[in-house]
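ERR on first pass: missing label on line 2. Operator R.T. fixed the label and resubmitted. Corrected input:
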Amino acid sequence: MSASDSKHISFTKLPESEAVWTKLVKCTYLDPTGTQRTWESAERTTRPKDCDIDGVGIVAILERESGPEIMLQKQYRPPVERVCIEIPAGLIDAGETAEQAAVRELREETGYVGTVKDVSPIMFNDPGFCNTNLRTVHMTVDMSLPENQNPKPQLEEEEFIEVFFVPLNTLFAECKRLEAEGYAIDARIGTLAEGIEVAKAFKLS
Amino acid sequence: MSASDSKHISFTKLPESEAVWTKLVKCTYLDPTGTQRTWESAERTTRPKDCDIDGVGIVAILERESGPEIMLQKQYRPPVERVCIEIPAGLIDAGETAEQAAVRELREETGYVGTVKDVSPIMFNDPGFCNTNLRTVHMTVDMSLPENQNPKPQLEEEEFIEVFFVPLNTLFAECKRLEAEGYAIDARIGTLAEGIEVAKAFKLS
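pass 2 clean. output:
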C-alpha cells in the first residue's frame, strides 16, 4: 500500500453551500489612478485568527558523510490527480509560531526530530490567484539522536505519506527524473532546486 | 504614480454566480486503502484546453560586470492587499509553448527582449489547496542589444508594474529587507533565494 495506490475518480463543481475548507472572495481596491476595481481571490478558511500565515514548509537537511540530503515526501494530492513530490509541510495551529508548527509537523508526518536553524519571510504561493502563504522553516536532522533511529510518524487516518531523501547537489536532476516517472513537483522543492542550480551556474559563494 | 499608490477597500464573499476567473471544485478519489474520499480544490478558469499549465514564471538574468542580476517586479496584488515582489510572470495563451509565453510576457510586462536558456518541470503552487501551476523559463537578457536600450512595456490599462534588478548573490537579504519595508514576497522569488543560500551554505558546486 503506497501513496501511488490512490485513484482519481472525478472533478465536479463544488457548490458554495458545501465548501468548508476553501472560499472565493471578491477584493475591491483602488488602482494607482484612483479607479475602483475588483479582483477574484481564493482563500483557505483554516488560517487561525490573528495569524499571518496558513502554514509552514520544512527544509529538513541531514548531514551525511556523503553530503547533505533533503527530506522529501510522496503524497497523493487530489487537486492535481497525482502523487506529489513535496517538502514536509502543514497548517499552523492557533497560538503556534512557525518554528513550533514546523517541529510538530515534522514529528507527526515523518517521525523525525529536527532542530530549527532559520525561518524565511512570509511567502505567497500564487498572489494573483489566492492569499495562501507560508514560512519555510529550515531544520537540521541529527541522525545520531536516539529518537531518530526508528522514527514513527503519527499520521491521521486519511494521511498516506512516504518519506525519502535526496542529495541536495542532485535535487534538480532528481525533480526532472521524478516528473518523467509521473510524479507532480511541488513549487517549493522545484524552485529550491532551481536556486541551487542558479548558484552553481553563476558560482555564487 | 506607482504600484504602491493602490489601496485595499474591502473583501466580500464572492457569490458563485459572479465568479469568472476562479472556481471551486470537488475532487472525488480512492485513497490507498480503497476508501472513497472527497477534497476541495480551487482552480483558475483560464487554462487553455489541452494545455498542462496555467502560466509561466520568468527567471531573467542580466550578466553585468559587477555580477549577475535578476529582473524583479513590484505589482499590487489584491488577494494579499499589498504590493508584491515577484519575478515576471503571466498566463499562457492557447497554442503557445512555455517558451513562447515567456518571451511574449517579458516583452509585454517589461519591454525587455530575452533569450530562453532552460525550462523547469511543471511546478504546482499549492497542491493541497489548488491545481494552479507553472513552468519557470530561464532567460538571459543581453543589455548590449539595441532593443534593450530603452525598453517600453506594453501594459494593459489595468496593469501597473515596476521593474527593478537585484544582484543574485544578495537576493535573500534583499527579500528580507523588502518584506521589512512592507512588501509581500512571492514564493517563487523567495524560494529561489533560499535555494541560492542553501547552495552557498553547503558549498554545492
